[in-house]
Amino acid sequence: MMKVYMKEREEICDVCHKLWQRGIVAANDGNVSVRLEDGTVLCTPSGVSKGDMVPEILVHLAADGAVLHTMEGYKPSSEMKMHLRCYQEREDVNAVVHAHPPIATSYASMGKALDGYFMTENITNLGAVPVAPYAKPSTDEVPDSIAPLLANHDAMLLANHGALTVGPTLTRAYFNMESLEMYAKTSLYIHLLGGTPDLSRERIDDLLELREKVYRLPGRHPGYVKYNQDKD
Known about the structure:
With 232 residues, the chain is α+β, with helices and mostly antiparallel strands.
């Protein structure tokens, strides 16, 4: 008898509801997945609002994406190729969240990375967030576009598309998405107020050391990197 994984199903639905309630997704946008203890994957089905997500309709996939179980009428999200690539590239990743947070997606559509080093939480939590090249949705172009960034990043912008975050747990992947949108919002407000310089390199390095030695945050961090230098 196949294990139902009801706890994990309920956790996915809780995150879906939060994404919808916070306006990080609209209509049936976005998708969420979790890698289970046996290496298989639970994911959100295609065409369902995250506000309406219930445990029974989640799709159970093999590690290669083959459908193991689904309710009649439901199929896996069309972006599961992207999720599966995250699991293939990173053994430490057990959850993936793809969403369209409005402000972060605006930066993605402008091709502008989030690499301001002016707020302590942004520096320690995510560091600079790059933009993956444009890729046609639901095709192999999408996983190929994010693959080079996965080694050093737990969050990335998808050009003209949205954002992607990963984590060792679903809670961490979701927190990364929330933090990413707050990072984008803060960056926008600072720009509207006239801009501000980055913290000094000494202070940035101090914060990165705190992340590693004191906070011991999970996941990957790019360290100090500026993606927009050529555009400034």
